[in-house]
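Repro:
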Amino acid sequence: MKLATTLAGLTLGLTLGFALTTAQAEITVGVSVSATGPAASLGIPEKNTFALLPQTLGGEKVKYIVLDDATDTTMAVKNARKMVGEDKVDVLIASSATPTSMAILEVAVETKTPQILMAPIPPLDDVKRPWAFQTPQGFPVMANAIVEHMAAGGVKTVGFIGYADPYGEGWLKSFQAIAEQKGIKLVAIERYQRTDISVTGQALKILSANPDAVLVAGSGTPAVLPQATLLERGYKGKFYQTHGIANRDFLRVGGKTVEGTVFPVGPMLLAEQLPDSHPSKRPAMEYIKAYEAAHGVNSRSTFGGHGWDAYLLLNRAVPVALKKAKAGTAEFRLALRDALEAVKELPATHGVFTMSAKDHNGLDGRAVVMARIENGDWKLIK
């Protein structure tokens, strides 16, 4: 009887030990997206994308916790604190807009949790940079592509109107620095809020400067407003937008007012038009096939691609991190951060990622193509 009791206890202990080991092996990923609010046209395809992801990461079971931050920085921080404090996530993927992403970064740095951002952000200091990894193309890569196109088209003067937040400011600084090198002058600089319903005053100031072209640094459907207003007021020059407009909602809301607009974008959006030799064609087509099978033809969005690329990065990094520590621990979060930083030549939907200690975006010129809106659709500029 005593032996049986001992054996039963041993069996129970082994079972509990196995269960604990299994639980520790599960990777927990916290996701905050802007499925509502001004950035909803970015966050909805991202949310849809996470529902399509495999149930493993690097061969290990994964649990995704997806919350809506409503494009609100306070809600974004609340989400992050819940996921880190209560759900004990190993990594954060967040968020859809630059302001919410940067708000969450404060929590990531404080708790030493790696964060993969789905929105571009300005350069970071040595305290924040180690914990932030960015899947969208950085401002300088995209700004350089715009400036090259402007210069080739004879543009000498530009009017700028962008969000009065880190997205708009990041674009302004990057574009201004590169444009000056090419002899292109900014003759008007205006800002507006994502929630504004009128930009008439800003448009009139740009019109008075009479620039050869206007660059709108917005994202999603709110990026239509400045362009539509300028056209209503009689502006006849060229329009450029950023990669923040690359979704069908922008085309739907913009209609004829956005025809002819030129913008830089990740290769995913125009995957079918890419040569077979392009490193992003295969991963982009795999993502598009999965997304459009679930949501219909032409439902793709580059923003969903940023979420998919976050998965690809983790799929590469998780097995490396697990060799050093168990999931659910501070040691694993640090090991995962180190593994993400060590990613090299990873083909993804938006380019090829090669990270380093100084570069947590890791994308180069292969991450951008130039496109034009024609007949309500996107066309690759070759």
